[in-house]
Amino acid sequence: MSSLTEKDRPIVQLLLSTGTCPRCILRFCCVGSQMLYRQPHQDLMKDLQEFLKSSQEQEDTVCLDVADPPCKKLRVEPGEEGADGLNHNGAIPSADNGNSATESSAGKVCNVCLGVLQEFCEADFVKKVCQKVNSADYQFTSFVFSVSLPPQLSVRERAAWLGVKQQMRNLGLPLAKDDIVQLKEAYKWIIHPQLSEELGVPADGKSLFEVSVVFAHPETDEECHFLATACPDCFKPAKNKQSVFTRMAVVKALEKIKEEDFLKHFPCPPSSPKNLCDALEIQCNNGAVFVAGRYNKYSRNLPQTPWIIDGERKLESSVEELISEHLMAEFKADSFNFSSSGREDVDVRTLGNGRPFAIELVNPHRIHFNAQEMRRLQQAINGSSDKIQVRDLQLVTRSAIGRMKEGEEEKTKTYSALIWTDKAIQREDIAFLDDIKELRLEQKTPLRVLHRRPLAMRCRLIHTMRAEYMDQHHFRLQLKTQAGTYIKEFVHGDFGRTKPNIGSLLNRTADILELDVESVDVDWPPTLAD
């Protein structure tokens, strides 16, 4: 085994004798060759045995040339070892030809990785993972592999490292913890090429398709618990966490606890478990896909999002649902998140070129749609209801959605309002409205939305107005306003909470009968050809 040198011999012999698997031994010897970890377990064990045998033969040769000093490999009687596990000659105790050390590890569950680098690197387990992936029926062109390990593995690795560190210290050799190959890294070195070959796609750290395995080891679950007494500040209850003994909390505690305190509570080296880890879950997850477009709403009895009050649904559908149900079905997603450039009330229509919207489709199984397929999807949405229409339906990136919200309050929106007045009006009574430019309003949060929005005073601008006389009590008002302006309140005043308002400008009571959004001046998403 060319990657190992003479200074690794005491580490190999110590770890083999305490029940550590060959791949974990390579990690503690700081071996960085990925190909070496991919060799079969039995071959690695044989190589380690040959390594110990060849090293011993060299020492035996040296011993034969020395007359007086006893051979370092002489066996010691039970009880002759020092406190640090070394015999009186300063050598690590070993059996003939290293065979007993090898036998200690052969066929046992590793006392460090709990079997993760043993059975779970074999072809049978890889096929099991791939069967799970293929049965889930996802579209993907690459994958990223993640693994969740039991937190007690960190405790066991610390115990093994402290043992190795002590031996190296006694031999006058340095060992830095950072040099040890991390278990997750070694596991991915082994598993990546096997998964890639079986799935037929490359492993890519930036892939949006994730294959994850969650390992658990119930037999040793309580091995972390002593840390809660030693470092209570590291273990605090958190939302959505079933246990305080998370991997991060355990790692944090291990960084704080002193070596002598650790060794009082945990055996060094760690004992060999009876059972392998359990592969508790094999999961697949695709990164979110984002679809954007513009919608028109033609109904005055349709909310933008589901209208539910105190658990009771008020109306049977919504803009969000009419659009999303088709997208959810085609993309085979688990759930969705809807967002838009502003929102209209349930009784307000959205006309013109529509309101920009975006939908995040969570964990979609299908992700590849060409322009023609998106056009057909748009047609399906439009054919399903006369209450809405969508246009410019397209796939976008997560970052592009930010453009919909950028400078939202600086954007302008155009409205058409049908207004009633209590006192009769003539054309000349409303003509002056056309001349008003950049009218500054002060709007307190409207009473009708105060239950869901904080009380605040907002300054808004009415850029332009154009009044169209209809009869003595009705006229239509076209307004171009700053986004975020409450139009209904600008008309009736909201009991004086919006100043000035149409009622105060006309010196009479005014109310709004109908309101339409004529345009939302956000240049996104890009317009598509019909």
Your description of this structure?
With 530 residues, the protein is α+β, with helices and mostly antiparallel strands. It has three domains: 6-56 and 109-223 and 266-285, no CATH class; 289-408, Alpha-Beta Plaits, CATH 3.30.70.2510; 411-520, Alpha-Beta Plaits, CATH 3.30.70. The protein has helices spanning 9-17, 22-28, 34-37, 41-64, 99-105, 123-136, 152-170, 183-199, 225-230, 247-256, 259-265, 319-331, 371-384, 398-405, 427-430, 487-492, 502-506; strands at 144-148, 209-216, 278-286, 289-297, 308-309, 312-313, 335-340, 349-362, 388-396, 412-421, 437-444, 457-471, 474-482, 498-499, 510-520. Strands 4, 7, 8, 9, 10, 11, 12, 13, 14 and 15 form a ten-stranded mixed sheet that branches. A three-stranded mixed sheet has the order 1-2-3, with helices on one face. It has a two-stranded antiparallel ribbon with strand order 5-6. A hairpin with a 2-residue loop joins strand 5 and strand 6 (312-313). Helix 1 (9-17) packs antiparallel against helix 2, helix 6 (123-136) crosses helix 8 (183-199) and helix 7 (152-170) runs parallel beside helix 10. The longest helix is centred in the N-terminal third of the chain and has 24 residues, at 41-64. The two termini are 67 Å apart. Residues 60-98 have low confidence and may be disordered.
